[in-house]
């Protein structure tokens, strides 16, 4: 099922150097794959120079959701990741307009970032409306994967969580099928209040088309 051409229609420009230096990073997939140690660790100390709770959004698009979180939690840090650069330029415009200092955006393949996330580095992971790439030739591009859940189990602090939303029933089923292999993760249905925290572009889009929005709050079980 297509996700539409929303990013391709955006009218945006590359951030000026002084803005990009503060809010934008681009990590080459080729270099991440072959030379991962050349890149900084994905944690608050490395990226923000301080020890603080860190939330990572995978597939953040234009940053609506993560900017809302960052504005509400100025003492925490936030990183939005997307494999397409164009929506991230809009995300940078948004964060400048809001005057936020606790967020950066990263143009990268999320699947190659997992190796740069240290253990217990994340308070939360946001995965909302990822593309349902369920055809056989697309499955290696899925963000809903055993690799991603293995990273979540390792990288989330005890009590941290992965927020997952989708309008695609097969993708929701896939997540449920993968979860039992990760005993330190516990999937709970997203509550109505969680679903209503903030509706991003894709949330509004699919809800307006009458699609059922399903969600899980996948918690990292606290160690005894």
Automatic annotation (TrEMBL):
Its EC number is 2.1.1.33. Pathway: tRNA modification; N(7)-methylguanine-tRNA biosynthesis. GO terms for cellular component: tRNA methyltransferase complex. Keywords: Methyltransferase, S-adenosyl-L-methionine, Transferase, tRNA processing. SUPFAM superfamilies: S-adenosyl-L-methionine-dependent methyltransferases. S-adenosyl-L-methionine binds at residues 57, 82, 109. Substrate binds at residue 167. Pfam families: Methyltransf_4 (PF02390). Catalyzes the formation of N(7)-methylguanine at position 46 (m7G46) in tRNA. Belongs to the class I-like SAM-binding methyltransferase superfamily. TrmB family. This is tRNA (guanine-N(7)-)-methyltransferase. It comes from Chloroflexus aggregans.
